[in-house]
Amino acid sequence: MNISIVTVGKLKEKYLKQGIEEYVKRMSPYAKIDLIEVPDEKAPETLSEIEMEQIKDKEGERILSKINPDAHVIALAIQGKQKSSEELAESLDKLATYGKSKVAFVIGGSLGLSKAVMQRADEALSFSKMTFPHQLMKLILVEQIYRAFRINRGEPYHK
């Protein structure tokens, strides 16, 4: 399975980079993981609704340019469907079983994802009703993908 994780913004925090690198390394027997970062738009603290949409649209164009046309796209969004770790594992297993070997997870910037990205997404996934920094979300996501592979292989870890 080929998994892309497309995120807005550059990851700067060393401790998050180290955690992500560790889980990507652990996943190497299960899948090829491609971490793709697109630049975020610089924005002032206060924005109008129109300015917010314009920023999300610019970031969205960058995201969409990095997604393989035949990838199954999972957008991380608060309004998405919440799943347990076991349900995520089952979803990834079904995708692999039915020939969807390319999966792209998308994490937006601080303002979220554009309408165009949400329309391209095959599904929207929510990890919580809470808001997380998108950099931290990347670490949480790679851990959950790793956990999903362990669950699907019946290997210990997910207790």
TrEMBL record:
KW Transferase (keyword) present: yes
The record ties this protein, via Pfam families, to: SPOUT_MTase
Give compartment(s).
Cytoplasm
Write out the entry's keywords from A to Z: Cytoplasm, Methyltransferase, rRNA processing, S-adenosyl-L-methionine, Transferase
Q: Name one GO cellular component term.
A: cytoplasm
The record lists the catalysed reaction(s) as: pseudouridine(1915) in 23S rRNA + S-adenosyl-L-methionine = N(3)-methylpseudouridine(1915) in 23S rRNA + S-adenosyl-L-homocysteine + H(+)
Keyword Transcription regulation on entry: no
* Superkingdom to which the source organism belongs: Bacteria
Q: What is its EC number?
A: 2.1.1.177
Q: Where does S-adenosyl-L-methionine bind?
A: 76, 108, 127-132
Q: What's one GO MF term for it?
A: rRNA (pseudouridine-N3-)-methyltransferase activity
Protein family according to the UniProt entry: Belongs to the RNA methyltransferase RlmH family.
Q: What does this protein do?
A: Specifically methylates the pseudouridine at position 1915 (m3Psi1915) in 23S rRNA.
Q: How does it assemble?
A: Homodimer.
Recorded protein name is: Ribosomal RNA large subunit methyltransferase H
Task: Please name the source species.
Answer: Peribacillus deserti
